[in-house]
Write a structure and sequence with these properties.
By secondary structure, the protein is an alpha/beta fold. 41% of the residues lie in helices and 17% in strands. It has a single domain, classed as TIM Barrel, CATH 3.20.20. α8 links the parallel β9 and β10.
Length: 339
């Protein structure tokens, strides 16, 4: 139904307009009687594949990646579609509009997207109140970042604010220092600033009556030496795992016309072209660390086969984003059956 009826309509609009139309419909369905039942009826029929990770029991290992439901507006709807967990955000302390439009682009030939959204979100207080009102018991992750105006040397304060505000409302946290769309953010992936942020968050975590898992989301563009640093940092800070990977700034091997790519300009590329590199990063981290920490695999999963490749490379669970936009809820069902 999605690929034959819904997708052709949505793809007539520019991507951001299509996103707002979709979320408008999902939010309406969440509010009306039997709305969630309707979503379940047309959504994925997932198999029960309970996965325990970080001390959390996930009903299935297929999650929605951060970036789609930035503001925690449609968690119940995505749960009804069959996702085993939903990651909201990236959330920052203060609301911010993000970068100027247009900032989201489809590369249909590549089944990919380019975005330079820039952490547009309603701010942690608004998101926190929405999370309190959700009806489903789906596992929720909180992806947190810094405001654009916050200097890197003060970034840790933004992460701590989001961590404390969302602590009672999410099941795990993801530290996002890997988006290419906030100026200077990726500099925080260097060993010292990243260690400082993660150590401070772990210290804050240990003050709580019960701790929440803290994960790190990394870019696919890191070198092997930088990935070695990531392994060392995880060992030293004792954070709970990694999400590999975020979007890439690489544009090699695309089918889309080069002139069109150049006219789009900067942004993070997601979707099918990222699959191999993200899988390689997962395999490298898993093998070099001797599987010492869990990895959630994301990037270019648009089929059951690609999901299996992520898991075979060393991922414990997976997340969908661009593949879900192109394939719809059937992708969840197909992966669930294959696993």
């Amino acid at each position: 139904m999605y690929k034959s009826l819904i997708k052709p309509v949505l793809f007539r609009f520019n991507p951001e307009k299509a996103h707002h139309l979709t979320f408008g419909a999902l939010k309406t369905l969440q509010k009306i009687p039997f709305g969630l039942s309707l979503i379940k009826a047309i959504g994925a029929k997932t198999n029960k594949q309970s996965t325990e990770l970080f001390g959390i029991n996930f009903p299935n290992p297929i999650g929605l990646a951060a970036g789609l439901d930035k503001n925690a507006e449609a968690i119940d709807a995505f749960a009804a579609m069959g996702f085993g967990f939903v990651e909201i955000g990236t959330v920052t302390p203060k609301p911010q509009p993000g970068n100027p439009q247009p900032r989201l682009f489809r590369l249909k030939e590549d089944e990919a997207l380019i975005n330079r959204m820039g952490f547009n979100n309603d701010g942690v207080q608004v998101v926190k109140e929405r999370l309190k009102k959700r009806k489903s018991k789906v596992i929720v992750g909180g992806n947190i970042g810094k405001n654009k105006v916050t200097p890197n040397e003060e970034a840790v304060n933004d992460y701590l604010i989001c961590f404390n505000e969302l602590f009672d409302e999410v099941d795990y946290f993801v530290v996002n220092v890997s988006s290419p769309n906030t100026p200077g953010l990726r500099e925080l992936q260097e060993k010292k600033p990243l260690s400082d942020i993660l150590n401070r968050l772990m210290e804050e975590n240990q003050k709580k009556p019960s701790q929440k898992p803290i994960l790190l989301k990394i870019a696919p563009d890191l070198t092997d030496a930088q990935l070695d640093d990531i392994i060392e940092i995880i060992d030293e800070t004792k954070i709970h795992g990694v999400i590999a990977t975020n979007t890439t700034i690489d544009r090699s091997g695309l089918k889309t016309d080069k002139g069109e790519i150049e006219s789009i300009g900067n942004g993070g590329l997601s979707g099918a072209p990222v699959h191999q590199r993200s899988t390689d990063v997962i395999r490298y981290l898993h093998e070099k660390s001797n599987g010492s920490f869990p990895i959630i695999g994301v990037g270019g999963i648009n089929s059951a086969q690609r999901a299996k490749e992520k898991l075979e490379a060393g991922a414990s669970m997976i997340q969908l984003y661009s593949g879900f936009i192109y394939e719809g809820p059937d992708l969840i069902k197909n992966i669930s059956k294959a696993l």
